[in-house]
């Protein structure tokens, strides 16, 4: 069952994959796929050729648009190999694709290397899309928060390593 006007589909049952409507905006590019069974992220590819100089960033099109069901979001993560070998990351990692967004998924890549430019070729795997169930919260104003073991301690306070 599929509501064609919104692309929303019922949530899958246990052990069944989530079906997501995908529009291929560039039919010559491979569609997002999971490299291995059980992987969390599906590879997104570059629709463009470009060079990122040291410290430069660019908004890179992926050639795909999706219609996520309500209650889900897509999160665009850097690819660990690009980060480790070339210093290429996603600036706003993870980038968020909301269920209501229907435009092309874009990735803001950043070259963190100080010396070397990085060449992105059309079809290169540039990021990963992780789809997750999400909840919307109702924020309730209170005078005080319940006590917790951690309390108000922040960055770096949970250990030395």
TrEMBL record:
Its pathway is: Pyrimidine metabolism; dUMP biosynthesis; dUMP from dCTP (dUTP route): step 2/2
**Top-level EC class, please?**
hydrolase
Q: Which InterPro entries match?
A: dUTPase, dUTPase-like, dUTPase-like_sf, dUTPase_trimeric
Query: What's the protein called, per UniProt?
Result: Deoxyuridine 5'-triphosphate nucleotidohydrolase
Q: Can you give the residue ranges of the dUTPase-like domain?
A: 30-159
Q: What is its EC number?
A: 3.6.1.23
SUPFAM superfamilies recorded for this chain?
Answer: dUTPase-like
Entry-linked Gene3D superfamilies: 2.70.40.10
Q: Which GO terms describe its biological process?
A: dUMP biosynthetic process; dUTP catabolic process
Cofactor(s) listed in the protein's UniProt record: Mg(2+)
Q: Where does substrate bind?
A: 79-81, 92, 96-98
One matching Pfam family, short form?
Answer: dUTPase
Q: PANTHER family in the record, alphabetically?
A: DEOXYURIDINE 5'-TRIPHOSPHATE NUCLEOTIDOHYDROLASE
Q: Its family?
A: Belongs to the dUTPase family.
Q: Recorded GO terms, molecular function? A: dUTP diphosphatase activity; magnesium ion binding
What function does this protein fulfil? Answer: This enzyme is involved in nucleotide metabolism: it produces dUMP, the immediate precursor of thymidine nucleotides and it decreases the intracellular concentration of dUTP so that uracil cannot be incorporated into DNA.
Recite the UniProt keywords alphabetically.
Hydrolase, Magnesium, Metal-binding, Nucleotide metabolism
Which organism does this sequence originate in?
Answer: Kocuria turfanensis
Q: Can you state which reaction this protein catalyses? A: dUTP + H2O = dUMP + diphosphate + H(+)
